[in-house]
Amino acid sequence: MLRFRSLYGIGRSINKASGRLRHPLLRSYGFKGKPKVSIIGCGQFAFSTIGFFIRKTKGLIFLNCYDIDADNAKSLAHYFRFEKVAPSVEALLSNPKLEILYIASNHATHTPYAIEAMKHGLKTIYLEKPISVTEEQFVSLIAHKRKYQATLFAGYNRPYAQAVRKIYTALDQNTIKQKDAAFSMNFFISGHQLSDDHWYRRPEEGTRVCGNVGHWIDLAIHILAWRNLPKQLQVQVAYSNLEEPDDNMNITMTSDQGDLISIMLSARSEPFEGINETVNFQYQNVIAKVSDFRELTIWKQDKLIKKKFWPKDVGHKRAILQPFETENRDWSEVECSTLLMLFITQMVRQKTTSATFELESALAEFNALVAIKSKSLLTTSNVKNNAEQLK
Known about the structure:
Elements: H1 2-21, E1 32-40, H2 44-58, E2 60-66, H3 70-80, E3 84-85, H4 89-93, E4 100-103, H5 110-119, E5 124-127, H6 135-148, E6 151-154, H7 162-170, E7 183-190, H8 207-224, E8 232-239, E9 249-255, E10 260-266, E11 276-283, E12 286-291, E13 295-300, E14 303-308, H9 316-320, H10 331-350, E15 354-358, H11 359-390
Parallel strand pairs: 1-2, 1-4, 2-3, 4-5, 5-6, 7-10
Antiparallel strand pairs: 7-11, 8-9, 8-15, 9-10, 11-12, 12-13, 13-14
């Protein structure tokens, strides 16, 4: 608790501990608001992050929650004073008071739950990362998004971290779009050590590329978009153990614009304070280093800028509050990073060491598949309507 207090502050440390204990005597307090937020998936992330930041900034506005583990749902509902535990996803989505849905279940269910929510007419949906774990899921998700004109938000939080935003503001805004300038980025991540039977390792969950590495793939795409996205990325993957290809691995990407990106995931022991990461960055005359999102150092020619963040800020608060904000990141970045993530996931599944990702052609092919899926959804909808009229 003392160590976590130095990282997150006393309030969130207590909240995190409460999420681990799930003791019936523990309960959160705050001002009561109009219940309009429901959560599917009541694990530790929903408890210590989603619930915490919504309660802290918006009050107790919780409606229903649901989890396949009934005890998790009951303890989350009790602690954050939800109106009730929903007996099923159908019951949760059918509540007329529901306005904002958070999905924090296991990775493979994010897309199906979001699609079901859109079919129920819900327009505002937050999906924890990854938003999809297969191309088929991703095509279906975006086709439904366009059909129902829903607004989706993704749980990629690093772009919202204060350190990342301060690096952006340190860049020369007049020359940031310079076409012949290249980015250098290095991400070193000490991740959680996972047991052989951990649910992340189930084949349907998309490997640790979807579960973990997707965060830094997305952050790389977000940063590249400050200038403009490259047309092509040469991707190389080094595996330390081919028996566990998605653990202890290094991904290197070089672009047609000279960008150099390296992502190393090391999970050889359990980090006591949670995931620890170091980011090194260089673009034009700006060099920056982020130390576990607690400290930032920027060198801009003769200028030296140092900044400490307490509590530690990996962007969770701002990311969780996306449905309540108007100035959010461009959704197209999430689509691009998801396509790249799924491409690298396939490489890891096949233990491929080198491949070329053509972003423009991947987007064109993806949008063509979405158009086909959208057409089939429209046809299916017309058939159902005709059947109802005949009845």
